[in-house]
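Example (one chain per record):
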Amino acid sequence: MKDSNNKLESLKNNLKKLDSVAIAYSGGQDSSFLLKIAKDVLKNKVMAITITSVAQPKSELKDAKSFTKKIGVKHIVQSVDILAVKNFSDNTSKRCYYCKKQIFKKIKDIAKQDGFPHVLDASTMDDMKDYRLGMKASKELGIRSPLIETGFSKKEIKKLLQEMRLPQLDKPSSPCLASRIPYGTKITKSRLKTIDNAEEIIKKGVPAWNAW
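Predicted structure:
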């Protein structure tokens, strides 16, 4: 854990230099970790922004609201009509790029209106190993990734969360619902809703014949 603790100190120092930040907040482990550290360091000079759409699991928003309330962070929630983005709804191989571009533009606009010049996301070193066109979109818009800048892996973050005694964050990630739909198959509200409902049933362990 010594290396992780060194990274944590580097993260805190980097955040101090930014003075005030808006964080793209999903409610997951990584963004909750970044938000908690930012709150500890910057106090009231941190804001969480959650963008919702039909492509996000409903449970994620509930978790995001609960955590921001728990740690006392201003939390803004706004929705986007992501299906109106043709390159997303047509489900091309670049759907993630167009989705994230739309979402981060919205976050930047909100942050600017509220006087927060720096927008951060919670990408980690693990994210750099995958096919993540969303990261390309964030870089083009000047979104910073402090967890990558300080070399954090998801495993290290999980261990630190356990040390911080935040067991409610020990949960599996919930990627975009559209990631379950093969490229080339039209993304529709109906399909996304069906996927979300099915996965909620699985999480709760409810027998399928009692779920509807």
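Caption: Residues 7 and 150 are 6 Å apart (CA to CA).
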